[in-house]
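hi!! sorry for the late reply, been swamped w classes. u asked for the two structures so here they r. pasted raw, havent cleaned anything up. first the sequence of the first protein and right below it the tokens
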Amino acid sequence: MQAIDAATVHRLCAGQVIVDLATSVKELLENSLDAQATHVEVKLKDSGLTSITITDNGHGIDTSSFSTLCRKHWTSKISRFEDLEHVSTFGFRGEALSSLCSVAQVTITTATRDSAPMGTELEYNMSGELTKQTQVARERGTTVRLTQLFAKWPVRHQDLKKNIRREYLRLVSLVEQYAIISDNVRVSLINQTRTGTTTHVRTVVQSDRLTRLLSVIGASLRPHMARIQHESTQDGDVKIDGYISQPIPEAGRSGSDKQYLSVNNRPCDVPHIKRLINETYRAYCPAKYPVFAISITLNAQTIDVNLTPDKRTILIRHEAVVLD
């Protein structure tokens, strides 16, 4: 028996964090939102096969963090395990940028309020070490560009190319979720291909959650959307707020692809909750699935978001109360 070398460990762990096109964008989109950006643009070339570029107008990256930015488990979000009970940011594990360096070529351009209109372009190697630093013009914010995604992972690269349409549709759904929950943020998703440029997601900064939802599902459903509001103090505070389509054929969908659930403003997968919503809806409208965007707010100490690297699977201590 022998210890696995550090480079191999890095690649093994990175492959669990960045598993597909959607998670590569998710990590960067969350970084932009954590940086308090009010405009985030996700731009893909050839659906991500050629490049992925995420640009924001957030607070930028300080020069003191350049060398450690892409090192594994370096983060400004928490300093000890107990901080997880109060974490309010999307990211906190310090794995995203480090893992992206292992699966793609990463270039970061950033400027802070103090350095703008001058910024810095940073290049990192597969290990997350800074290899090149260049002064460039840049307004406040950060741009991360990924190229050659999974190029050094033959099986995943082949699967990405083979199923690029399916992978891109997953990405669209993911960006839609963050666009809907992000108050006072303009989120856009643009795809540039040989046949032209298409904008699949675009929200307006000054808009409420229903307006952002309708920008995703279509304004024609506005008359058929019902508000859901509920508060309970049993076994901990529970607040539910959102919108769901009325249980009539013209308001439902043939599939469950437009269903957006968030807990403490974090998009996540809670199968029991989604199943209950669908079963209740289909009891009144059997041939259709509902469209919904529902936000559940719980005491942060009653949930665990550290179950999986993507943090989409969460554990709710009082799930039965939420279901009731």
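now the second protein. again sequence first, tokens right under
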Amino acid sequence: MDPSFAYSMGALGVGVLGAVAGTFAGSAVWRGVTNKNILAAIDGKDKEFFQRIQKFRPQGQLRLSVDNPMPDYYGESIKSIQGYRAWLKKQRNVRMTLHAGLMAG
């Protein structure tokens, strides 16, 4: 085996291991340092937010294609209240389009 290839694979392996370990260590430090009441409030807000995302996104995924994907299915683009409202409007438009397509077809 070529030494440069071995060094490259080793560097890649260490980088991946560092990224995974850093994620877990950062989460553990965050959860260890932050007040438990604040963590409970944050977790409650996250749970409520994801339930709203599931409630308001259209469920007609079968009628969509690669050429016509559902816009932001998981809500990754939501960064503010205005972004959430814009996301709701897009999802409502998709739901209405799917509903109109089902009624016509």
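hope this helps!! also noticed smth abt the second:
The helical segments are 3-33, 36-56, 81-104.
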